[in-house]
Write a structure and sequence with these properties.
Layout (H helix, E strand, L loop, with lengths): L3 E11 L4 E12 L4 E5 L6 H8 L7 E6 L2 E2 L6 H7 E4 L12 H11 L4 H14 L15 H13 L5 E5 L7 H17 L3 E6 L10 E6 L2 E6 L1 H6 L1 H6 L6 H11 L11 H10 L1
Parallel strand pairs: 3-8, 3-9, 6-7, 7-8
Antiparallel strand pairs: 1-2, 1-4, 4-5, 9-10
Helix pairs in contact: 3-4, 3-5, 4-5
The structure holds adenosine-5'-triphosphate and magnesium ion (MG).
Length: 276
């Protein structure tokens, strides 16, 4: 079966003097082409989940299947990692080459692609993250935000079916953040790449079509952004606030405005209210 399936997955960490349940009994399916947001506060298990998806970590219990292949099976790991790319939160751990261009070409070259195909992918990935002018620079001399963009480009250039991004905008200023999110939306719509965007920031996940909210290692809520962000009480109970747009809607509804669902941005909402 195509897609990502987690079947009753738990992950526990044992250290010399402690024992930690990072994830417990997680079940979900992600279909190819979806845009999923995974939301949770610090330590809710988000990064553990990301690492389980490409077999960097094995579940203590349960199964993680990528297009039907089990991450527990060593023979299938190579294929799983070609299908599913992860952008990690700290780009310093991901960048290894002396030149940006080489960094981005590294993955596609290892896939055995022709030099012209590698060149095409490098240019495409650099353009998506807006780093064309930096292609001959040294990654270690870039700013944190620029490194984060290069790390994203190097995974994009592999053209994975599933792109997992663990807090990819944590070092970006608001403009770069908005640009990267806009590109992710485009890659999902136009290239049909499956996006799994992980963040503690609800504003980052506004473009997702479905949200999975983690709390203390369990799935706490699931639904469309409107369903999840519309339930301020339930979100608030675990210390999460919906994006400003949804807070505004809630307040307008409390004042007696009936807001229909057909909008995605604040200007669209304002237009609807002004028409009334
Ligand atoms: N290798 C490990 N050994 C022991 N405990 C771990 C390990 N990795 C994660 N944990 C624990 O598992 C829990 C979940 O951690 P995880 O990094 O998945 O959370 P997170 O949601 O990504 O948090 P953050 O928002 O801070 O990145 C935490 O309590 C963490 O301390
Ligand atoms: Mg994390």
């Amino acid at each position: 079966m195509d897609g990502i399936q987690l079947i009753d997955v738990s992950k526990e960490f044992k250290t010399a003097d402690s024992y930690k349940v990072a994830l417990s009994s997680i079940n979900f399916t992600i279909h190819e082409g979806e845009y999923i947001g995974i939301l949770g506060l610090n330590q809710s298990g988000k990064s553990t989940l990301a690492r389980l998806l490409n077999g960097l970590l094995k579940p203590t219990r349960g199964r993680v299947l990528i297009n039907g292949m089990d991450t527990d099976s060593p023979q299938q790991l190579k294929e799983i990692r070609q299908l599913l790319g992860i952008v990690f939160p700290n780009p310093d751990n991901q960048l290894i080459c002396p030149i940006v261009e080489e960094e981005i070409a590294f993955g596609p070259e290892n896939l055995g692609l022709s030099p012209s195909e590698v060149h095409k992918r490098v240019s495409w990935a650099l353009e998506i993250v807006g780093m064309q002018e930096m292609r001959n620079h040294a990654p270690h001399l870039l700013s944190g935000g620029q490194k984060q963009k290069v790390a994203l480009a190097s995974v994009l250039a592999m053209e994975p079916s599933y792109l997992v991004l663990d807090e990819p905008t944590s070092m970006l200023d608001p403009l770069s953040r908005r640009e990267v999110l806009e590109h992710l939306r485009m890659i999902n719509q136009e290239n049909h790449m499956t996006i799994i965007l992980i963040s503690h920031n609800p504003e980052d996940l506004m473009d997702a079509k479905r949200l999975i909210v983690l709390n203390e290692g369990s799935i706490y809520m699931q639904g469309t952004p409107k369903e999840v962000y519309g339930d301020m009480g339930k979100l608030g109970a675990v210390g999460l606030n919906p994006p400003g747009l949804y807070q505004l809607i809630q307040q307008l509804e409390e004042e007696g405005y009936r807001i229909d669902d057909n909008f995605e941005t604040i200007p669209q909402l304002v237009e609807k209210i002004c028409q009334k």
